[in-house]
Amino acid sequence: MSLKVYISGRLVDKEDAKISVFDHGLLYGDGVFEGLRSYNGRVFELDEHLDRLWESARAIHLQIPGTKAEMAAAVEETLQANQLRDAYIRLVITRGRGTLGLDPNRCSDPQVIIITDKIALYPPENYEQGLELVTAATIRNHPAALSPRIKSLNYLNNIMAKIEGLRAGCVEALMLNHKGEVAECTGDNIFVVRRGTLMTPPIDAGILEGITRNVVLRLAREAQIPVAEVPFTRHDIFVAEECFLTGSAAEVIPVVKLDGRPIGEGVPGPITGRLIQAFRRCVQGD
Ligand code: PXG
Fold first, then answer.
1. Residue 120 pLDDT greater than 80, yes or no
2. What range does the domain containing 109 cover?
3. pTM of the model
4. Could you tell me if 182 and 275 lie in one domain?
């Protein structure tokens, strides 16, 4: 059975899942997206992802066809059509078909695309031994240009940083902001444990407000781990006790090295371990 993809109200075979070459999503990266997960047939933090999708769209003056409830139902329908209980879910909203010219007002029919598939995870050894990161020379988008809070189809900046990481043999790369502070990674938020406090950059450091990030902050508070959303620099990572990343795809993953320097003892730390366990319980709905 071929994988079914949802495109604007219809479930089609993956081979037939096509959109126009005149769609501004393709021509200009004009659109927004979300990446979600389902565990045991339940979509994790669905409302939060839909809220962020609607906010991203609002920020680029794009009206998403239909309601959040209709989108939630369409996600459910797509998962069921593919008999997926543990899945990766990609929602894409494009500006729609237009003319060769930037003007979004000349676009009609924004497309709603829902792709569900098996999850491609980092290899298990990355979770056991931890990741190594390099700092990319490519900085995160300047917040006064395209806001990093918008999950837009324009990910080239992060792709450039990802290429830097891959060329250095790393699956993720650290991105700094325009002030030289730590922002986040190409598709994951970053945390450090320093002097017993869990620290992560604030939203106004120019980052995506990750939904996994927010869940981990809540889990840490519940576990009575001191938490601070404060700006910090690469120096704070070099001298940190622990470091980890969060994201819908990666979940919570330890980081043990930055730019060739071991972090803490150079192995995944105890607070990271506790939060990985708490997160696993949380996604299973415990
Ligand atoms: N920062 C950036 C720049 C992201 O794109 C995150 C942080 C983590 O956010 P969430 O809400 O997922 O905790 C992201 C999320 C993919 C993929 O297929 C990318 C993301 C999420 C899932 C899949 O590349 N980015």
1. no
2. 4-117
3. 0.97
4. yes
